[in-house]
């Protein structure tokens, strides 16, 4: 090839490439994207700017509480380990603490049975594999312990999951009952709406405030036990920063929960610590620690169990709350204990003491001995009722004591006599009112006594008797709530029907509602907040304070901030101080700045004083009161609480 021709080859190739490019451009061809592109609308950050952080994805909470899927007859099996140890150290003692240990492990079979009176019932069977009371039980002792759980225990919960009562076989001993109560209290999950919430719950010591928040993954939650609101048995400290007074234990607890897709318990682990005394209280310093772990074992299985099994067993069961002291106090009195209490006293001797004695302590002792006598010798109730009929016309002071003893005894014979006395129109109205009051003290009212009260509320026109009967019905509904919630709801529905139809005095209805604590009367109490009488609004606020729920919290805040009467606002502050604090802190902060009456602010300050160890905001609010409040008394009160 000639040199000239060689020089033309690159030109020919270039022209060919250009022709090809032109042809492809006409067909819509576009060059491929470069390997690195910098967006104009999102310029790269400068070196001195912080890099953006990724926002974590919020995990929506799953079903729980009222949304739980509860299937009658469905059984879940769990393995559990629970250990508790406690120690006491006397003031000035040189030796250290001596720990006492109890614990047990095994399998828990929990089967949902159904609903009655707004409560959910479960059958619980326990198969212990380890039991320790100071020392592990031997094989023979463990076998005997296990045999006591051959019959199931029945557990009642409210729709949110709070354990309301445990129904034990009457032959199960206190030690075994306490083991069960400890396990149920330690694994309790009470749900409200939202990703975080506060609740009031019960354990073996008393009622406490807890706080929940959703965990980092679906169906997981963290529970923090914050403080005791009240104990089953009031605790009196002989000394303290402000002198003698009632005290509550100090509580700390942390538990992790995992639920399944239906909102039912899958796993629990955690611990809590309860401390009491020490310091300036004058009480021995005690500490109790509890650790628990519970895990579901296998896929749930269906059984034939239903509410029929529970109802057939109810007559031999004894319903108890989780709080140990209350259950001990409410337990059926033993025959031996009653015999020791009565001694060699006779009916005539005890009646004579009640008719002539004036000292309160001696009257109380004689009344307790008479109630024990009625339990030992039930037919003596008939003779006592005859005595009431004979002396009532003379307005004998012993009548009220005898009737109280009949109510405290609560035997079928005693209740029958109370029902008969209530229906005898020839008795004085005052005496029949005392009968109604005594009927309200019966722990487990019979159908006959309940019907007698229901008849009396419709038949009587005397205001004193009607008020006593309405209040007794409120107490009866509360007493039946634990053992027979279906009957309790029936009694309450009948009472509220009369109240809503305005056939009963509104104030008396509200006082009865305050005794029941049932949300069945929520709308009635809400309407009463608009009543023109301040006294009625005070009682309506008291009735609301006895009810649970977020709706009630909102209403109490509204009363505290908006009611025109200071005494009504004071009552709202008192009711709020007995409840879980979290939902009310915003309203409390507003009151401290805007409330014109010092007595209302003082009540709010007292409430904040109980929160100092668990709520950081409480201290800030009290310091603000010390710096800004117009009342010297209120400032002094806040300062004294901060100094404790």
Structure, explained:
Helix content is 45%, strand content 21%. Strand 2 (100-116) and strand 3 form a beta hairpin. The strands form 2 sheets. Strands 1, 2, 3, 4, 5, 6, 7, 8, 9, 12, 13, 14, 15 and 16 form a 14-stranded antiparallel sheet that branches. The termini are far apart. It is built from 24 helices and 16 strands. Helix 22 runs parallel beside helix 24 (632-643). By secondary structure, the chain is of the alpha+beta class.
Please describe the structure with a list of short key phrases separated by commas or semicolons:
two-stranded antiparallel ribbon, disordered N terminus, alpha+beta, 14-stranded antiparallel β-sheet, 644 residues, globular
Instruction: Give a count of the beta strands, DSSP E runs of length 2 or more.
Output: 16
Coarse shape: globular
Mean pLDDT, rounded to whole units? 86
Radius of gyration: 34 Å
Distance between the termini: 111 Å
Largest sheet: 14 strands, antiparallel
Low-confidence stretches: 3-49, 326-333
Structural class: alpha+beta
Quickly describe the structure.
The chain has 644 residues and is α+β, with helices and mostly antiparallel strands.
Sequence-ordered SSE layout with sheet pairings:
Layout: H1 3-26, E1 74-89, E2 100-116, E3 119-133, E4 135-136, H2 139-147, E5 153-157, E6 163-169, H3 174-186, E7 196-202, E8 206-214, E9 220-231, E10 235-237, E11 245-247, E12 250-259, E13 265-276, E14 285-296, E15 301-302, H4 307-313, E16 317-320, H5 324-330, H6 335-342, H7 347-356, H8 360-376, H9 380-391, H10 398-409, H11 412-422, H12 429-439, H13 447-459, H14 463-483, H15 485-500, H16 506-516, H17 522-528, H18 534-545, H19 550-562, H20 566-577, H21 585-594, H22 598-609, H23 616-628, H24 632-643
Antiparallel strand pairs: 1-2, 1-14, 1-15, 2-3, 3-4, 3-5, 5-6, 6-16, 7-8, 8-9, 9-12, 10-11, 12-13, 13-14
Helix pairs in contact: 6-8, 7-8, 7-10, 8-10, 9-10, 9-11, 10-11, 10-12, 11-12, 11-13, 12-14, 13-14, 14-15, 14-16, 16-18, 17-18, 18-20, 19-20, 19-21, 20-22, 22-24, 23-24
